[in-house]
Design a protein that fits this description.
Helix content is 55%, strand content 8%. It has 472 residues and is of the alpha/beta class. The chain folds into two domains: 345 residues, no CATH class; 84 residues, no CATH class. The protein has a five-stranded mixed β-sheet. Strands 1-2 form a two-stranded antiparallel sheet. Helix 1 packs across helix 2, helix 6 packs antiparallel against helix 7 and helix 13 crosses helix 14. It is globular, with a radius of gyration of 23 Å. The relative contact order is 0.10. The mean pLDDT is 87.
Length: 472
Amino acid sequence: MGWDETHSRLIGLINANIILSNGTGYVPPDLSHYGHNPRFYGPVVETFLVLIEKPLGLESMRDITLMRHGVTFLIFYAGVVAFYFVCKKIFRSRWPALTGAILLAFQPRLFAHAFYNSKDIPFLSLCVIAFLTLMIWTERPGMRAVLLHALAAALVAGTRIVGLFLAGLTVLCAGRIRPRSLAVWGPCMLFILFLLWPVLWANPLSAPREIYTLVFQRTRVAWADNWNLYRGMGYLAPSVPWHYLPWWIAITTPPAVLFLFIAGAVSFFRSADKDRRFWVGLAFLWLCLPLATVMLLHFPVLNEWRHFFFVYPALLIVALHGLDRLGGVVRSKALLSAALIAAHLPVAWFMVRSHPYQNVYFNRLAGPSMAVIAENYDMDYWGLSYQRALEHILRTDADPVIPIYAVNRAGVNLNALSEEDRRRIRVVRDYRKAKYLITSARGRVRELLTRPEVYSVEVGGAKLMSVYRASQ
């Protein structure tokens, strides 16, 4: 269970309470302990996850957490299916479409995040679905297609406000869409977005200003103290180098995909198919515009590139264009498929042996070994491995109550345990009163290293988390 999950659920609770109270008599919870106000974060997915808790009869945090993970995983694979149809429309063949869907589904980091990241993964899937509805609209103009794409685009922006970039992609399709339809689409999308964002209902006129303040001011302040380990150096979120995002994407993308992406980019203007060139070009913009905006405006960035997972399908579209161009040279789909499968075998093996920590996948551009990479880049920054630490302590220590001290917010992982196990764990704020000390590589405290280590979680020789005995 990641550290952000309780914050994500709070977004849903705030908006669900407004819906259930019909927008009247609502008293918001105390948010003073949060560095930034969650009221104006995109609520669509989080509100849905909260609203289905009661109908499903879920009361314990463990059951709620498992449900959230299951639904997030299903949303990801809905995006994979949508991506298959996007690729089929662009390349007019099942082979590249199926290849694209497989490459998306089995990107190691995305696969891991699909189990627990209810913010970035649903946003990725909804971006793909909205891109598909845009393609449908250009093929079959009509009011039904207009409303379908308005709904899809509103869901994207209602999940994360940066999703408004899709409006720009839609406008670029003006030559393929009737101007009157485009004029109807914009107001419809904004109206649906308003309906999907309950915190805007009370004072809709001030909402744009508050959201702007959140994105451009509060986020900078809230993230100002967040550290990133990048290329062996520590950087605060606002001061990461301009190449932080593209380099993270490069070192965590399977090598075969990187090669195909370069081939697709180089051969882009050589395609004789104007329709394909248009959609691949639009995918280029989907990939480049968000990254360029962040780099040019110097937005703070943290946690590798998880906030930009949504550009990966666009990268794959360009890569599939490269694969198609190579297919024209090799002239043997069987040989090309065999080469692609062989290139992906090391990635597949890593996914199997590192489960459930595929979120720490790196290719060889990052370093010669996982142990070296762990000294230069953030690994388990959300503390997912802390659950294993708690389970080990419960399994090996017979005490009825076990005091632990956790560097960072490992206590969140208590929600993944049964009620009986949670009662046995007591999280203390003073490590001198703890029996065990738990820390990730990201939060390792120097004075803990002199204590006996009783347990650790490793992936390929890289240590993600350690448990130290604090007292006898």
